[in-house]
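G.,

No rush on this.
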Amino acid sequence: MSFEAAWAQSAPHLAAALAQAGGTHRLEDVRALAADGAAQLWCAPRAAAVTLIEADPCERRLLVWLAGGELPTLLGEMLPRAEAWARTQGCRRLLLIGRPGWERAMKPLGYAPLARVIAKDL
């Protein structure tokens, strides 16, 4: 599938996720990151996600930064693909930033809280 077709399929799911993401990016910002290869676009007919590879001196990890759509598709189809791909990229772990419901949904898959993000609007 071409990038344009994948983006057209993914955009509605990602727009809904962005509405919950705190206003850090617009949909066109996400598209530009994915089109330039700075982020990875994962799509399925009923879900979409965007990941970033982060690297520190002692660790590479795949960050699931944005995800939207049907939870069974995200967890049952897309997450295993992303995990497998992350291993091929030398990633040591997969992180997900999201609302508290993600923690409950991912616990049966072996995911556990690593830290809490605390924020204040200025």
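When you get to it, here's the other one too:
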Amino acid sequence: MKFKNILLVEDNEIDAYITKFILQKSNIVVNIIHKINGVEAVKYLTEEALTFPEIILLDIRMPEMDGFGFLDQMEMMNHPEKNICRVFMLSSSNDTNDIEKAKTYINVVDYMFKPFNPNYIQLLG
């Protein structure tokens, strides 16, 4: 299993560092694109990305646009590769409302609790 692009949408510098470190050590991804909030991630996908990432690791609580706002925007995107993109929520929230809401989005395949850990690698595959 090797992915060309994983988009990490995470505002916490330490959580982003941990996630990137584990992904790089696992050698499952060529490029890790890091954006600090939903606004930056939407801009990246609509204006900069040459291809849609295969995986998005998405935090919920972020400034400017949270993870759910990003998912709402993503659902409106008209990109042919969007439907093969798998989103994993990566959050410190164990609020059942957040977990249930995440399940309502078609691209969301799992909900993971921070910090990202090496056991999550197998879930991405």
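DSSP finds five helices and five strands in the chain. The chain has a mean pLDDT of 96.

Enjoy the weekend,
O.
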